[in-house]
Amino acid sequence: MKRKIKVSTLQKAITKEHNKGKSVGFVPTMGALHEGHMSLIKMAREQCDVVVCSIFVNPTQFNEKSDLKKYPRTLKQDMAMLIEEGTDYLFHPSVDEIYPDGEDISVEIDLNGLDRQMEGAFRPGHFEGVVQVVHRLLDIVKPDKLFMGQKDFQQFTIIQNMIDQLKMPVDLVVCPIMREEDGLAMSSRNRRLDPDIRKKAGILNKSLKWIKKNMDELTPAQASKEAINKMTIPGFKPEYVTIINGKTLKPIRSFESHDYVVVCTAVWAGEVRLIDNLILKK
Ligand code: AMP
Predict the structure, then answer these.
(1) What pLDDT is attached to residue 168?
(2) C-beta 39 within 6 A of ligand 1
C-alpha cells in the first residue's frame, strides 16, 4: 500500500492509474477502522481495479470541539487493516492540505431541507462540513465509484443529492450496516463506551427491530414513542427516533402511504452519542 499525504502526489498517482485504464474506487473515512469500514474496502476491491482509502478527521463537521478532540485516532492499526484488505493507496492528509485557504470554503448547493432534520437538527453545521469535505475529497481523488455506509443514512442521501445536483461523474455505492453479535452497529465511537453501557447497547437495534415487527399495528408516531420508551434505560438517553420517507428524509404520518420507509435514531449511551437505522419498507 502506498501512503500519500500530499494532494499533488496522490493526484499524480491516480492520473497514472486512470491513464492505464484502471477504475478507481474511493472509501472516505475518519479512521479508527473496524469491520464496517473494511466491508466498504472489500466492496471497492470487488468492483474496482484500484482502491483508495482516506483517513481524515474533518474538523468542519464537528459542531462540538470536545467531540473532535476525543475522536479515536489509531493510524498504525488502521494501516495494518488496510494492507490486509489489499488497499492500494492511503490518503492521510493534514487539515492544511484539505483546506489550504482556510476552513470557510462551502459548497453552493440547495439540500432542500435534507440537512435540517435528525442529525442536522441536533448537530448544527454538521452536514455543511460533510458536504464540504466529501466534495473536496472527490475533487482530489476523482474516483469512478464512491463507497459509503448505510449506517450514516442521512449522510449518504445528502451526498447522493450533491452528486446529482452538481452532476459529478461518480457513482455512489451504499454498503449495508455491519453489526456486532448483539446487533450494535459497528462504530469508531463504540470503543469509547463504558463496559457496563456497552453490555446494554444492543437495545438500540433491538428497539428498531421491534418497530419492524410491530409496524402493522401501529402508527409511526406510536412506534417511535414505544421505541424511545424501550431505549430509555439507565445510562441511555434517546435523542430521537424518527420514521422517515427514505427519499425525502421527511417524517411520515402513516406507513401505508410510503413505499420506502426508514427508522433512524440517535441515542446518548453514557457520554457517547450513537446512531443507527433500519429500513422498514422498500
Ligand atoms: P466514518 O469513519 O465514521 O466517517 O465512516 C466512514 C464510512 O464508513 C462511512 O461511509 C460510514 O457510513 C461507513 N461505516 C461506518 N460504520 C459502518 C458500519 N457499521 N457498517 C457499514 N459501514 C459503516
Answers:
(1) 97
(2) yes
Query: What digits encode the pLDDT tens for the residues 35-50?
Result: 999 999 999 999 999 9
3-state secondary structure the chain: CEEECCHHHHHHHHHHHHHCCCCEEEEEECCCCCHHHHHHHHHHHHHCCEEEEEECCCHHHCCCHHHHHHCCCCHHHHHHHHHHCCCCEEECCCHHHHCCCCCCCCCCCCCCCCCCCCHHHHCCCHHHHHHHHHHHHHHHHCCCEEEEECCCHHHHHHHHHHHHHCCCCCEEEEECCCECCCCCECCHHHHHCCHHHHHHCCHHHHHHHHHHHHHHHCCHHHHHHHHHHHHCCCCEEEEEEEEEECCCCCECCCCCCCCCEEEEEEEEECCEEEEEEEEEEC
pTM above 0.90, yes or no: yes
Q: Is the Cβ atom of 55 under 6 angstroms away from ligand 1?
A: no
Catalytic residues: 37
Which CATH number does 2-175 carry? 3.40.50.620
Topology of domain 188-281, CATH: Pantoate--beta-alanine Ligase; Chain: A,domain 2 (3.30.1300)
**Domains of the chain by residue range:** 2-175, 188-281
Ligand 1 nearest atom to the CA of residue 152, by list position = 12
Query: Is residue 152 lining ligand 1, measured as CB closer than 6 Å?
Result: yes
- The 10s digit of each residue's pLDDT in 59-91 is 999 988 898 999 999 999 999 999 999 999 999
**Residue having the nearest C-alpha atom to atom 22 of ligand 1:** 149
